[in-house]
Amino acid sequence: xxxxxxxxxxxxxxxxxxxxxxxxxxxxxxxxxxxxxxxxxxxxxxxxxxxxxxxxxxxxxxxxxxxxxxxxxxxxxxxxxxxxxxxxxxxxxxxxxxxxxxxxxxxxxxxxxxxxxxxxxxxxxxxxxxxxxxxxxxxxxxxxxxxxxxxxxxxxxxxxxxxxxxxxxxxxxxxxxxxxxxxxxxxxxxxxxxxxxxxxxxxxxxxxxxxxxxxxxxxxxxxxxxxxxxxxxxxxxxxxxxxxxxxxxxxx
Length: 252
Prior knowledge:
Number of strands: 0
Largest sheet: none
Mean pLDDT: 80
Radius of gyration: 28 Å
Order of helices and strands: HHHHHHHHHHHH
Strand content: under 5%
Distance between the termini: 20 Å
Structural class: mainly alpha
């Protein structure tokens, strides 16, 4: 489930608890609260301690290295533990960034000197990135781009307009059904646009991202007005899809 899908689901739950709240108001209330997906994002990986060496991490390291030291080849001979340990230290160094960062806790000690000698003798500094095993975290909020593009303003205004019409046509069953169908179509369009945004957002290491960021010269409100003026609001898109019989649109 994408972040915006989770927000929409949370907004519907918020509306159920606050019947007088419109969907756009519920969406904004959810956006101001904690991220509804964050509670599910748990990891079993060991995390750096903030108060010295964590006993659990130390125990796991000893346990893993002991198992490695006692490992044998298929013919029963012992593995080259020194070579394996040197490779492990090279990867740890790559994960933290450099030999200097690895030994920052006590530079100049004889232990630090020996560790630095082992790592530097195992891998060249320019080759360290190849030894990295920890994932590189890159902050890229596609949902923020969706907001900055003006689409969120258009979406919320269109939903708000339809919900006002629903309240005015509560006794007109035919009109109510048409408006509900329009809401469902807009929800499908919003999900499709969001999926395309995620799929087409360039990776941060490629030059196209700089061009994308540099193109954000207008406020979301101004971009929303340009979207509506071009006849590309959600209601415009939904109307074209519904008039064509509800088929899947090639251009959402």
